[in-house]
Amino acid sequence: MGEIDPIYRELAARIEGCEDSKYIPQILAKLANLEQARIVRELPAASSEEIAEKLNMDKETVDKQIQELYEKGLVLYRTKGGLRTVYAVTELKDTTGANPKYDQEYGEEFFDLWRAWFENEAYQWRQKMSIWSGEIPMSRVIPQWKSIKDTPGVLPCDDVRELFRENEETLVVNPCSCARIYRKVTPRSTEEFCFIVGAPAKYNMDRGTGRKITLKEAMDILKEIEEYALVHIGYNEKKLNRLISNSDRNCAIFRFVPSNVREMIAPSRFEATVEAEKCLGNECRKCTEICIFGAAQMKHYTEFDEERAYIDTEKCMGCGNCVVHCPVGVQKMKLVRPPEFIPDEYDGLF
Questions:
Q1: pTM of the entire predicted model
Q2: Which fold has domain 270-335?
Q3: How far apart are CA 346 and CA 122, in angstroms?
Q4: What DSSP letter does each residue of 159-224 carry, written as one string?
Q5: Contact between residue 218 and residue 195 where contact means Cβ atoms under 8 Å apart
């Protein structure tokens, strides 16, 4: 990409922690032409009329550009009225990476730039931020429902089916921005597997990325993506108020985490266990291949004189993927944490 206009560096500097970024200005240049960039520079603003007056543009032109920027994810409508742009790079990634409508305009370089940011700047950016430094992690793992269906003590907040039922009126599926950014690395049969509810669902429906779905359609999507062994991750609260992502190693949250993933993501209330005497050992190793946390491992059992699976409970996040994918059913989930382990409501920044 050639030299870009200084306005994009100015806009990048307004996004916390991105003032020295090499890639965010280039991403912004892909998202907005110069006229649109000048409009974004005027935000926040009370109205499009205010922007039109400041830039000496007619209101119809400004409204048209704002609508396109809204669809792209660079302009948002404030709940208290008026317009704003994105505040954080996480918000920029989520909003701008999820709309296939503009893929041809952006070109593949747009996604290449996002991957370059993740691989070269994301962890350093996270080190500057204080948004995940609280005592309680922002997110939590929600186990695969099939892995806990026969486990005593399951609560509605543990079961993705119950969370969907409670929010069926506003349940929406959205393209996953992380999956789209990494689609050249890990191709999928679908990119529609982020579930959102409430205000975020309305926002994404309004801008044309979200798709209203029924409970049956949600369960069909989960079945379709089961082969990918994705991890359900939601906000760390009992109610589903925003989203459930389906994440693999390419998900943004794993790109930000320190060596101890539990500083940002709480485990579920469950842990996996193994009946070693029935394990197929090195003939299988399926659990070790799919566990993104490194909890499912092989070890030598003297009583069997061979390697078989075991679970490192210090690393197990209780996602249930090893249980669902075990071909002989020797892995089970065990309830290990009380109901109060999950906060009633997450009150952090995002």
A1: 0.91
A2: Alpha-Beta Plaits (3.30.70)
A3: 24
A4: -HHHHHHHTGGG-EEEE-HHHHHTTTTS--S-SEEEEE-HHHHHHHHHTT--EE--HHHHHHHHHH
A5: yes
Strands (E), the chain: 76-77, 83-84, 139-142, 172-175, 192-196, 211-212, 231-235, 243-247, 265-266, 270-274, 296-301, 306-311, 331-335
For 187, residues 6+ apart whose C-beta sits below 8 A from its C-beta are none
CATH 1.10.10 in the chain, residue ranges? 6-128
| Residue 302 DSSP one-character state | T
Tokens of 295: 């909890």
* pLDDT digit string, tens, across residues 175-203: 999 999 998 888 888 899 999 999 999 99
What is the assigned CATH class of domain 6-128? Answer: mainly alpha
Distance CA 73, CA 85 (A): 8
Spatial separation of the C-alpha atoms in residues 270 and 318, rounded to whole Å: 5
Residue 298 phi/psi, 5-degree rounding, is -105, 140
Q: Report strand pairing: 139-142 vs 231-235.
A: antiparallel
Give the closest residue to 283 by CA, choosing from 305, 301, 308: 308
